[in-house]
Each structure stands twice: as C-alpha cells, then as structure tokens.
Design goal:
By secondary structure, the protein is α/β, with parallel strands linked by helices. It folds into two domains: 2-116 and 300-316, ATPase, nucleotide binding domain (Nucleotidyltransferase, domain 5, 2-Layer Sandwich); 124-294, Nucleotidyltransferase, domain 5 (2-Layer Sandwich). It has helices at residues 32-35, 43-65, 84-101, 110-116, 161-171, 178-186, 210-221, 232-261, 276-284, 297-300, 304-316, and strands at residues 2-7, 12-19, 22-30, 74-80, 105-109, 129-134, 139-146, 149-155, 265-269, 291-293. A five-stranded mixed β-sheet has the order 3-2-1-4-5, with helices on both faces. The longest helix has 30 residues, at 232-261. The protein is globular. The protein binds 5'-O-[(R)-(carboxyoxy)(hydroxy)phosphoryl]adenosine (KG4) and zinc ion. Zinc ion (ZN) binds next to α4.
Length: 333
C-alpha cells in the first residue's frame, strides 16, 4: 500500500511516500533561514512559505519515491496540534488531492505521529510501552496500550523541553533553533560549575521547565563588565549545566513512571530526542533492564513519514476522514 504523508504543522514543509512501513521518500524542507533572525517561528511567514512550497515538496517526494501520484492509495495529513494557518495549508492541499484522485483521506494527530515514528525503524516495540514525547511544542509522557489507546501520565505545566532549549539559547546569544547548538556547546562546557535548579515535581509525572529561564537570566544579569560579560566559556558552561538538568529530569521521570506502571519498555521521540546526552543516558538505562527505543534523529524531528505511518495504522483499523476534516491548534491525544 502506498501512503502519501503531509506535515505542515509548524515551520517545516514535509511530504513523504511510504510503501507500507518502508520509507520511499521523506522530504523535509526547512524554513529556518526565514525565522532564525526573529529568534522563533513567525506563524504568518510559516503559512505563506508552506503555500509557496507544498507543490514543489510533494513533487520531489513523488519523484524520489519513483511512484506516480495516481498510484497513491491513501493520503495522510496532520490535522493538529500546531499553528493553525500552517496546518490549514497541508489540510486543504491533502483534501484537494484526495478529492481529485478519489483516494481516501485520513487526518493524523501530530503527537500520535511522533509516537508512531518508532514503527518506521527495523527494531520497534511490542505493546504496551511508555512513550516520552519531547519536542519544541510538547513534553508529555504516555502509556501506550495499543494503536489509538493512549493514557497521558504527565505533561509540561509551562514550557516544553525544546522550547526551554530554544529560549535559553536565545538568552545566551545563539540562533534558533537552539537545541542542536546547546547540545554541541554542552560537550565543551563544565556542567558542575553553575548550579541550576532541578525542576523535579514530586508526586506527579508533570514537568516544569520555565524556572530554568529565570535562573539563567539571573546569572546573566549579575555578570559584571569587569568579568568581560558573556564569554564563550560561560556560554559553554551554562549549556552544559542546563542540558544536564533537563536530561536528568527526563530520565528520572521515565524511571519513576516505569516503576509505577510496571513497564520497562520505553520509546523516546520528538526533536529533543535527537539530543546526544539524552540518547546516551537513555541507552544506559538498558543496563538496568529497560528496553529503550530511540528513532533515528531524522525521524525524531518533525517529518511526514511519521504522519504517513500513523495514518496507515489508523486506516487499517477502519478509520477514514471526510472532506469536512478540520485543523485544530489544540488537539490532545
Ligand atoms: O519535534 P520537533 O522537530 O518539532 C515540534 O514538534 O516541536 O522539535 C523541535 C525542537 C526544537 O525546540 C529544537 O531546538 C529541539 O527540538 N531539538 C533539540 C535537538 N535537536 C532539535 N534539542 C536538544 N538537542 C538537540 N540535538
Ligand atoms: Zn513535532
């Protein structure tokens, strides 16, 4: 079965073609260069770029997959959560293809797609498993019983982990998105020199990362001119401290949720799951009897192949969407 996947939920225009679980193409066209000078995503720019690019990206995905658009059996599109203007571009485009080609359409939840990205890998888990989604928009922990059966165990009460990375990066003069840059600088810094608060909320699997911004802001405010302001060394040490705190909180929450749920099979996905320290620490849990699943880095960050696989799974369970399908900025699983 050939599935066309479309994701325009945020700033990447992405289209993929799957042949069942096999990725034939997965084009992700990044808009970063248009947003980075603003230190974050500008929704109006994002939706305009999606309109400009969606045809071309689809053409590239079809060409690279060496298929004809007429051969596509299912069109899967992200319906939310995300930026409403951006989502609507992908949704209208998918509906038009579905209507013209008389092929079925299925709307996919972006969070469900992140969870399902692991099924694009050769090694994937049996049900049930725990799933931590750590991205720019979300930090949530689920118990996944089966396809379509998700129990939320916890979520962030303020900033998502990726959002915290991006905001701290901006504060120390790095460009957007800051996650990969902090990841790199942290390797050269000393995480022991600067003490940041560990936002570990007890008695809940919820997260809170916004206090870290205030802590870093205080450090930056107290820098005197005699000390030479924000040096490269300080930038590296702040990166290392911040990253070690975030990773420690994520790992501790996985461990405590696993204990309560009596489940040691864990999938970690979303953009922050591309983080080298988180990947290393997560894999170390295998020594404690955990079964850890980390999709490859390009499948952790936003991409349309994950939309296609989640759509295919829903379709196989008999679900379909009609042309009244609407986009939702807020759409919990
Ligand atoms: O999943 P994603 O591509 O988009 C959303 O659904 O939000 O995640 C993007 C987020 C950004 O905040 C980015 O800074 C973060 O993932 N990110 C990273 C790394 N690569 C991307 N954060 C930490 N370390 C990384 N290596
Ligand atoms: Zn995402």
């Amino acid at each position: 079965m050939l599935v066309l996947g479309i994701d325009t939920s945020c700033d990447d225009t992405s289209v993929a073609v799957l042949e069942n679980r096999k990725i034939l193409s997965n084009i992700v066209s990044s808009q970063i260069q248009f947003h980075s000078k603003y230190g974050g995503i500008v929704p109006e720019i994002a939706s305009r770029k999606h309109i400009e690019w969606i045809w071309d990206v689809t053409d590239r995905a079809i060409t690279e997959a060496k298929v004809d658009i007429k051969d596509i059996d299912l069109i899967a599109v992200c319906k939310g959560p995300g930026l409403i203007g951006s989502l609507l571009v992908g949704l209208c485009f998918a509906k038009a293809i579905s209507f013209a080609s008389k092929k079925p359409l299925i709307g996919v939840n972006h969070l469900e797609a992140h969870i399902h990205s692991v099924f694009l890998e050769d090694r994937y888990p049996n049900f049930p498993f725990l799933s931590l989604i750590v991205s720019g928009g979300h930090t949530s922990l689920y118990r996944v019983e089966d396809i379509g059966k998700y129990k939320e165990l916890g979520r962030t009460r303020d900033d998502a982990a990726g959002e915290a990375y991006d905001k701290i990066a901006k504060m120390i003069g790095l460009t957007y998105p800051g996650g990969p840059l902090i990841d790199k600088l942290a390797k050269e810094g000393n995480g022991e020199l600067i003490k940041l608060p560990k936002p570990m909320l007890h008695g809940t699997f919820d997260f809170s990362f916004s206090g870290l911004k205030t802590a870093v802001k205080l450090i930056l405010n107290n820098l005197s001119d005699e000390e030479g302001g924000l040096s490269d060394k300080l930038r590296k040490d702040i990166s290392a401290s911040f990253q070690s705190v975030v990773v420690e909180v994520l790992i501790e929450k996985i461990k405590s949720a696993s204990e309560r749920e009596n489940l040691k099979r864990v999938v970690i996905t979303g953009g922050v799951a591309a983080n080298s320290e988180l990947r290393k620490r997560a894999l170390e849990l295998e020594k404690e009897g955990f079964e850890i699943y980390l999709p490859s880095k390009s499948l952790c960050t936003d991409n349309a192949a994950m939309i296609a696989i989640a759509g295919l799974h829903r379709f196989k369970k008999g679900e379909r969407s009609d042309l009244y399908l609407n986009a939702r900025a807020y759409l919990p699983l």
